[in-house]
Amino acid sequence: MSNFDDDFPRRYSPPPHHNSGSGGGEHYSFPVNSPLPHSFNFPPHTPSPAQFHSSLTRSPLPHIGHSQGRPAPHHSSFSRGPVEHPIPERSTSGYQPTFTGSHSPRLSPSTDLDRPPASGPTGFAPQTPVPPPQPPVDPARTQELVVPSRFVDGVIANHGLEKDSASALRGHAMVGSFGQELGQADMGTRLETYGLLLSIREELRDIKEIVKDIPELKTKVESVEARVAKAPLALDGTVKTALRNKVQEILFDVKRTQFDSVKKELMASLKSNPTLAKYLGVDKLVKVEPTRLKLQQHIGRQATWMRNQMKGEFVKSVLSATFSPLDNFTELMVGKYLHVTPASLGPEHKYRIAVIRHYLVQNPDLLRIDKESDEAENDESGDEDGENEMPKDGAKKKGSGEKFWVQVGKYLQNQIKKHGDDFAGDRWKLTIEEILAHEADGYKSLRSGQRAPLRDQRRQQAPPGGGNLIHLLNGGR
Questions:
Q1: At what angle do helices 149-159 and 184-211 cross, to 10 degrees?
Q2: Of 24, 189, 198, 322, whose CB neighbour count within 10 A is largest?
């Protein structure tokens, strides 16, 4: 049995002498009774349509005439003239001959030749290609919008809208575009406004989620505050020492004339100066009201205790039995309250201490340290650890410790008005010289006579008897 590829040219190729045609192109002629155009049924040994197509596209038929590779027309042996069947131009996809006539089937394109044969007179059934599945399309995007879709996407991005709000905005844009009655400017303004409203709605929705837990949170906070208010203030040794040193520095300031405002001044500094609060180790205590109130009480007790202690030290330093020279007492006080040595400071601290001591000697009623003063010291201050509580009724006892510093403060204010706040300045020079003379004498002259006048009081007459040593030292002036 011969191969179809070898047998096809022999059976269906035109004679060699009809190799060219005249006029409008070349033609391929088949006998009218040829079995191929009528049925196109291949014997069982024939190749598949794909192989047939491959053989056609792989090698041209023999006896192809001229350079264009098409066979010339020939005359049928059963007709008067040649039956011409025009052959179309060869495409790049393969050789596709076309037949004419009432019973001549047309070969399908090369894609149809690759399909398996189907039932029918031609042996080939056309098959419609199935398109790939497409993702669902948002209806709002298929609607022709007044504004570009990218504008709607920009509004969504600018306001950070969530998925449901974004869908609502796109639906609004689609509905507003029906009829195309709105202009782009009008539509864009409406979409921007609606996007803002949607973002506000989302924020309110988030706030509702937070607000619903506020009552429970408030109850918890109040419970914690109540426990903190009842609990004692816990300060370690380092924090206690730092607070005590700061209270001493404020209390012993060279320009201080008011001694009962240390607590208020220090608390104000801690609130306004976070660096100072952190340095003292109380920055977290200042931020919370319950602990801040406890810290304020602790500082108040420290200030009162330091003030009463400083009063006792001044009084003992000028009493006859416990008199301390000015230089020694200055070194003690500067080291204890300012934590430095006198050599590192100017003379103004020494002169200020001398002015206070001179005033105390002139006012012996301030030199008493009685039981009332001791009670005031204990009730108001507590100890260094701040563990002693204030009186239950909240009232401070007005002992001599408080009265003492009130009077000393008023005296310093009056003297500063006269001589200025620079104790080492020229305006204080004569007064300081006279006070230093009393210091050198140990205030013996003042103890034996009346109140010694200061430099601005020397024009007063000496008392009868001339027993005032200061008056005599001043030349009787």
A1: 30
A2: 198
Work out the angle at residue 39's Cα, subtended by the Cα atoms of residues 114 and 35, and round it to the nearest 5 degrees. 115
Distance CA 318, CA 235 (A): 37
* Cβ 27 vs Cβ 86: under 8 Å: yes
- Contact indicator for 71, 63 with CB cutoff of 8 Å: yes
Q: How far apart are the C-alpha atoms of 306 and 383, rounded to whole Å?
A: 10
The more confidently predicted of residues 23 and 256 is: 256
CA distance 397 to 470: 39
Average pLDDT for 240-260: 93
Task: Summarize pLDDT for 9-51 with one digit per residue, the tens.
Answer: 555 455 554 444 444 444 444 454 545 444 445 455 555 555 5
- Confidence bin at 448 (pLDDT 50/70/90): low
Distances (CA, A) of 119 to 39, 278, 446: 13, 96, 145
Q: Taking a C-beta distance cutoff of 8 angstroms, is the pair 351, 329 a contact?
A: no
Q: Which residues of 119-147 are buried (b: 16+ CB within 10 A; e: fewer)?
A: eeebebeeeeeeeeeeeeeeebeebebbb
